[in-house]
What does this fold into?
Amino acid sequence: MPEEKPASLRARRAFWRMAGGPILTLAAALLIETLARTPLPLSPPVPILLLAVVYAAYLGGLRAGLVSTAIAGCYSAYATAAPGQPFRATGDTVEYVLGIAVAAVGLTLLVDHLRARIERQLHEERATRLSIEQTHARLTLVLETNPDGILLLGMDRRIWFANTAATTLLGRPRLEILGQNYQEAMGEVRTPDGRRLSEGELPIEHVLKTGRPVRDVELALVRPDGDRVFVAMNATPLRQPNGELEGVVAALHDLTRQKRAEAALRHSRERYQMLVEAAPVGIGLLSGEEVIVYVNPAGARLLGASSPAEIVGRRLTDFVHPNYLPLVRERLRQGIVERRALQPIEEKVIRLDGTVIDVEVRSLPVWYRGRPALQVLVQDITERKRKEQALREGEERLRLALEAGHMGTWEWRIRESRLEWSPDLEALHGFAPGEFDGTPEALRQTIHPEDRDRVWAALRRVLDEHRSALHVEYRVVYPDGSVHWLEGRGHLLFDAESKPDRLIGVCADVTPHKRAEASLRESEEKHRYLAEASRILTSSLDRQATLQNLARLAVSRIADICVVDMFEDGRIVRVATAHRDSVQRNLADALKRYAPRPATDRGVSSVLRTGQAVLIPEASHEAME
It folds into this structure.
């Protein structure tokens, strides 16, 4: 657009246009007067004055022309007077002046009219030019901001306009595109599948040869950097007002992202199809009419078919066990009609050969050909069910065995320093069900004080030396104070880094066994004692020595102190004493000097009188009498 001029500048120019004509007329008159005083011959001044008036009217308009006319008239009147004589209005003079004035006014009006027409035409031309420039600027802005690439080329196939989007798509700067043959600017052109196009197959060539537009032709352009872009080209003929073809307008719509997205989607679908076909679980698709419209090979094998074709088209109810039909139909309604997410369930299905298997079913609402459907994943869990049943039976047998054997199981999670006990093991340690808090310290407190360090040392050896087996026996003290013997066996498990992870095992109540062992040892000790006593009694005839040896045998096997008293001649005689501790032997010798009194009702006197053994919990001096 033309630059807007300041108001003061416009005012000055208007003034000089207005005043310039009269000043020029006055200057012309002065020039004529000067020339009239020279000896040179001078033509009449009228043409010069009229020319000045015409120029003043052209330059300054009607007012400037009239002022110039007045100046020209005055000078004409002055020029007709004789030199040195005053001006007199004679008929000839008046006619002369009026003729000049009329001619000047006529010329002024004519020139003003012509000037107005010329200015109007110039104004219209400027307005037209300005409108064209504005339209061109707007069109250029529209083309530049268009996201599609726009190319304009003439019949010589050279590009004379390319917007920014076109330079980006072609991968070339604008200067390398403008003026170039469009084939050189576009580079290598191929079809989307990679076939190179010949010159006659190019859409622009078709428009140039036929004059008919080409729509939505997909092309692949190889840019100078080797990158490939996909575009949809629309080429339209560019015609002159008379209809003659003068070029082509080509629009390039970028399809690169779309093509890449389509390729990624196609690849994803192919990969999904491969995964579904190769999946080890059955995958199927159910329509709203309970018809199986798709099943993968694993699903066909699960139902006892050799190929999916034997299953597709059949109704789902042909395979559902009668006991599960109401549940399955309700789930179909929830999934297909209500479009609800469904939780996995376990049910039974009937194969083509009539066998019944257990399956786990997962369902997901989907769309199939514009209609609601249900995608189903089915996994055969018959073997898992069998193993679960076998596991339950095995656990029950183990529970009965542990209960019958008075045993309990345990697990020590080493990293967490946490113990997990079965209820039976809690009972073996004197706890009520759920009372054990699972800490090693709680276990330590239940162990007999004399066994704690030994048990903890055995556990530490297993962990430090990575021994796989643990075997330890220890006593526990119940809340009622009773002592029980337990035998623990365990096995150390390691993690993936060969570090101790868990220690698992069982504990058994061996209290009856320990009591039996103690009773057996006591019985054996008694037999050995009696055998040795018999040998001593028969080995010598010296009564004193024999009884003293018998007392020493007693303190070495069954007592701390032994006193032998005999009843002779109506009195009790103490014949032998012995003490286990050699330091306390003087006490035994002192007891030998004091014989029991026969008149008492306790101790030795009671035994001699009644012939029955007496147990004395605390052996005081009175008890020894």
